[in-house]
Amino acid sequence: MVEMRTFRWSNGVLVEDSTAQSNASSVSVADSWLTVDGTAVAVDRHLDRFSASVGARHPKVDVDAFCAAVCHVLSDSGRWFPRIEAIDCAGHVTLRLLMRVAPEPSVDVVLATAATDPRTDPFVKGPDLVALGALRTETGAGEAIIVDDGFVAEGAWSSIVWWTNDTLHCAV
Fold first, then answer.
1. Of 13, 24, 72, 147, which has the fewest beta carbons less than 10 angstroms from its beta carbon?
2. Structural contact between residues 61 and 67, judged by C-beta atoms closer than 8 angstroms
3. pLDDT digits (tens, 9 = 90+) for 50-65
4. What's the distance, CA 82 to chain centroid?
5. CATH placement of domain 4-100
6. What is the pTM of this model?
7. Where are the domains of the chain?
8. Which segments of the chain are extended strands (E)?
9. Do the strands 27-32 and 13-16 form a parallel or antiparallel pair, or are they unpaired?
10. Residue 57 DSSP SS3
């Protein structure tokens, strides 16, 4: 099984790009979600968050057609963890889709509190991926949590709690 396929948005079409290199330090905006046998929870919200963040950072980039094309490429079988990205390379923005095999689910994870909050923009997913990934390495845990004034503010790579309309969900 292929672990990851990379697609680049080029002239209004997603083109597979086997030569693309992952450079997380140039990711301006990103979003990802779990897809199992073609189904996912709230993909529209992920796409909306991505579109809004790209629009705020790169107002000349039209992401609507890209997001629609991403939905057509998603696999209808297997466990996948697609990530969409806006890559900033010296002022030029490239939109990209990484079709990644999803990690195996687990029922246990070791949490550790990060010593610092490395996020430069807590309201945009993407620019801090490298720093957040480093928290997991620094703590030696499966997930690092960022604590603000005694309260859990964020997980390095995981959602700890989230809202759906008026319902608060917890990852337990």
1. 72
2. no
3. 999 999 999 999 899 9
4. 8
5. 3.30.470.10
6. 0.87
7. 4-100, 111-170
8. 4-10, 13-16, 27-32, 35-36, 79-80, 83-89, 92-100, 111-113, 143-148, 151-155, 161-164, 167-170
9. unpaired
10. helix
